[in-house]
């Protein structure tokens, strides 16, 4: 294809790193965990990750499909926070945990004992006039205010929409350049790369970040002092933020689709208009023949097991197993 680019073969060092990462990703979804609030790979980006990891010279290291969140920022001084536990279950009311030094939050409020009130990797469902916006955004507080709340530090509450971000380890500067070009063309204009040099004798394996700040949305919507949360904006404003984030989810999805198509085209992977991978008639014939041979082998094995009494007593074969031979 016109945008296809000849890329160098991945080094042995890159191949080894990629295999280690893929082994981690191969863990079953119900067993896999990571350091993100969700604890696993977003469903909305899993297919994209699998496609990229199937390409020579690329392997994803971290990702987020896009999310909307509400979070209480951490404390911004190293002083002891009075009247607040760690936020973990079982610590409330424990004097040794109720007053203890905390880490300090960085710029933007992350860290320092901050906590999430809402995290969603899909547009938030809500119905104006029926749902309580404070409940939707996690701003409701059923606990009574502590008597010493006035001694606790004030912590701001943030509403934030973040578009997709994808980190990809690449096998060479040429691989990184291809990925960056596709990201920029798809609308991820703040994409970049690091590790563009290496020690003598070591292969250069740039890390590429695909991201866009243009869709970012952030607003302060409240304040927490001790255990008491106060919303500082109107319900209508909260609904407006949720609606805007839903619109940005849609644009984010479009950019991801453009990025995916550009990378597959640039690496000479043809795709159909519906987004499925394209294959010519010869490739399709070979695939169908292999599928037919596999079905035949499975059917023969079933018949053999049936004759030796290894199937259930009724001996029934699933009707859906016998598919027409399309070769």
Walk me through the structure.
This protein has 327 residues and is an alpha+beta fold. The protein folds into 3 domains: 12-65 and 165-210, SSo0622-like fold, CATH 3.30.1960; 68-162 and 214-266, no CATH class; 281-321. Helix content is 32%, strand content 18%. The protein has 7 helices and 11 strands. The strands form 3 sheets. The protein has a 5-stranded antiparallel β-sheet with strand order 5-2-6-10-11, with helices on one face. Strand 10 and strand 11 form a beta hairpin. Helix 5 crosses helix 6 (235-266). The chain is globular and about 70 Å long.
Index terms:
4-stranded antiparallel beta sheet, 5-stranded antiparallel beta sheet, 7 helices, SSo0622-like fold, single chain, alpha+beta, globular, 327 residues
Structural class: alpha+beta
Strand order of the largest sheet: 5-2-6-10-11
Over all CA atoms, what is the radius of gyration?
A: 26 Å
Q: What share of residues are in beta strands?
A: 15-25%
Number of helices: 7
Write the layout of secondary structure elements.
Layout: H1 12-25, H2 43-53, E1 58-64, E2 67-72, E3 81-82, H3 95-98, E4 99-100, E5 115-120, H4 133-136, E6 154-162, E7 165-170, H5 173-186, E8 192-194, E9 207-210, E10 217-225, E11 228-231, H6 235-266, H7 281-307
Antiparallel strand pairs: 1-7, 2-5, 2-6, 3-4, 6-10, 7-9, 8-9, 10-11
Helix pairs in contact: 5-6
Summarize this entry quickly:
By secondary structure, this protein is an alpha+beta fold. It has helices at 12-25, 43-53, 95-98, 133-136, 173-186, 235-266, 281-307; strands at residues 58-64, 67-72, 81-82, 99-100, 115-120, 154-162, 165-170, 192-194, 207-210, 217-225, 228-231. Strand 10 (217-225) and strand 11 form a beta hairpin.
């Amino acid at each position: 294809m016109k945008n296809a680019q000849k890329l160098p073969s991945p080094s042995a060092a890159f191949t080894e790193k990629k295999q280690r990462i893929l082994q981690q990703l191969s863990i079953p979804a119900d067993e896999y965990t990571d350091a993100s609030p969700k604890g696993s790979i977003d469903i909305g980006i899993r297919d994209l990750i699998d496609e990229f990891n199937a390409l020579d010279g690329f392997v994803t290291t971290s990702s987020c499909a896009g999310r909307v969140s509400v979070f209480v920022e951490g404390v911004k001084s190293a002083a002891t926070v009075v009247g607040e536990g760690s936020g973990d279950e079982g610590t409330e009311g424990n004097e040794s945990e109720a007053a203890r030094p905390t880490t300090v939050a960085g710029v933007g409020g992350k860290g320092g004992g901050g906590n999430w009130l809402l995290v969603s990797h899909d547009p938030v469902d809500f119905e104006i006039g029926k749902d309580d916006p404070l409940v939707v955004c996690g701003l409701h507080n059923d606990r009574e205010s502590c008597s010493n709340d006035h001694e606790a530090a004030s912590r701001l509450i943030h509403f934030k929409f973040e578009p997709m971000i994808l980190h990809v380890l690449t096998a060479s500067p040429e691989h990184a350049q291809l990925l960056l070009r596709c990201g920029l063309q798809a609308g991820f204009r703040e994409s970049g790369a690091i590790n563009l040099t290496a020690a003598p004798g070591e292969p250069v394996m740039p890390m590429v970040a695909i991201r866009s700040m243009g869709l970012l949305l952030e607003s302060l919507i409240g304040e927490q002092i001790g255990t008491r949360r106060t919303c500082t904006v109107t319900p209508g404003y909260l609904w407006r933020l949720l609606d805007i984030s839903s619109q940005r989810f849609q644009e984010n999805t479009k950019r991801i689709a453009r990025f995916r198509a550009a990378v597959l085209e640039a690496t000479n992977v043809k795709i159909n208009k519906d987004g499925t991978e394209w294959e010519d008639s010869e490739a399709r014939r070979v695939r169908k023949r292999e599928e037919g041979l596999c079905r035949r082998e499975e059917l023969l094995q079933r018949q053999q097991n049936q004759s030796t009494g290894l199937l259930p007593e009724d001996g029934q074969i699933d009707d859906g197993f016998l598919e027409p031979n399309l070769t």
